[in-house]
Amino acid sequence: MPIGSISEIKQPSNPYQNLSQRALRRCQVNAIKAMIPALDRSQAKAHALPRGAEDIGDGFVLLRALDSCARKLLPSEAQAFYRYFQDAEPDFAAGFPSQDDFEFKARKWARLRLPNALIARSAWKECNKPLSKLRLARCVKFVVSENGPTEVGEVRFFCQVGSQRRPVALISVFGPHDAQLYADSFETVEVREYRGSAALRVVDVKSIKTVVGMIPDEMPDAATYNTDYTHLHTGSRYFVVEKLGLKVGVLAGSDDPEMDIDE
Q1: How far from 84 is each of 76, 137, 211, 236, CA to CA, in Å?
Q2: 263 with 137: CB under 8 angstroms?
Q3: Mean pLDDT score of the chain, rounded to an integer?
Q4: What is the CB neighbour count within 10 angstroms for residue 210?
Q5: DSSP H helical segments within the chain, as ranges?
Q6: In this structure, is the dihedral angle defined by the CA atoms of residues 183, 187, 188 and 193, taken in order, positive or negative?
Q7: Range 126-145 burial, b when 16+ CB lie within 10 A, else e
Q8: Cis peptide before 65, with omega less than 30 degrees from 0?
Q9: 122 burial class (0-12, 13-18, 19+ CB within 10 angstroms)?
Q10: What is the pTM of this model?
Q11: DSSP assignment of 98-125, as one string?
Q12: How far is it between the farthest Cα atoms of the chain?
């Protein structure tokens, strides 16, 4: 009779000794696969790219949905791209007198797979669903510069821009965490204010470190769950929750279930 996931028991006359040896062998094999992933042939299919995905290097993969064409952005979004181009491609930005005159089109991607196998989604697609039918997965932690602070933001969409088709994300950056509460909670509770379109920034997707949950500091009325298509509300406070067991899951070769969803 199978015991858990160990179904190789073949000596019913001495089951416990056989079980311990089978479990020991399973642990040894799993440890070797974790140290040398190339030996695990069963993971080859699991890590194959889904239809329409684009590998952008360093373990990052852009995933569908992909917009059918480049579309004109809202003024607040275009201004964020203007500020990005001032640093990334100053010659291009110099062709416009000011950011108020800058217009930009982008072809949007919906999702990004990170090197840790998590899937970062975006408001572009998530805001098509009410809160009651959504597993919010568009908030991320990112670090723009090597020695810069870790920031938290809501991904509006992903795209590729410039002459080199740089993969970037348009992010609404949350405000700084409540320092007093953070200290009083022994650096455990990290509460930040959502600032919406007033804090848009374009960042390289490879500056994104992980996906996080943003839980309301004050829970909304349950009656609004079927009518709330915004999910995050300007001026409201949210606390950061990182995925429990992430490091263990990555070590074991587990993938984010969002990988199986093709939008």
Answers
A1: 13, 25, 23, 27
A2: no
A3: 86
A4: 17
A5: 15-35, 42-46, 75-88, 90-93, 123-126, 179-184, 246-251
A6: positive
A7: bbeeebeebebbbbbbbeee
A8: yes
A9: buried
A10: 0.78
A11: SGGG---EE--EEEEE-TTS-EE--HHH
A12: 85
